[in-house]
Here is the input.
Amino acid sequence: MLFITLNPSERPSILDSIEMLQNTFKHQNLTLHIFDNPGYQEGAIAALKSASIYDYFTGYDWVTRLNPDVIIQNDTFMLDSIRNDPEVALLHVKCDNMRINTDFFMLKVSRVSKDIFLNEKQPDSKMIQDLTSVQDIFFYKLTIRNAETQFTYQINEVLSSNEMREIPEVTAIGACRVRGDRSIPLPHLFPVIHYHDAEDFQNDNKCPAIFK
Here is the structure.
């Protein structure tokens, strides 16, 4: 099952995208859910919220959320954890010391309630009262609607019970994008990576990933 959010300008190309996905997953049971993109952070939130609204995850043990330019290059640790660690319910990358990254994660949905992603964090009215400018209030509310903030809040029970495992050799940099240690010059060595920037791609615009 794939959940896809489209910008209005991308609508004419949707048939090409569907054909590509059908060819890629032609030997799997593929279901596509296609929605208009509600916005930068809201689009990331929408996939999980819609899953709770429409009960998409019923029948699945695990789900993976990843951006279209995030690539799993080596799934050894992930598969070993899922198959052999009964205590694990979340495989993740940290965004910072307080939030879990939503570029990529794997969640055991059989561990959480099906309406978990309807439980959204709301702005603290007391904190809004203490802020002194319209700009500060705007940025505070923007921070609350951040996908990482919402997801971390929603899965707090899993985090508190120590059922999460961090993907080794991977971290988040800059705008909370999944990357590896910058001291390692070869990004294809990392298990999962967000190939976001233009310099990540070769001159022929082919994906630089090397799968293991």
Notes: Strands lie at 2-6, 32-36, 62-66, 70-72, 90-94, 100-108, 164-166, 170-173, 177-180, 192-194. The mean pLDDT is 78.
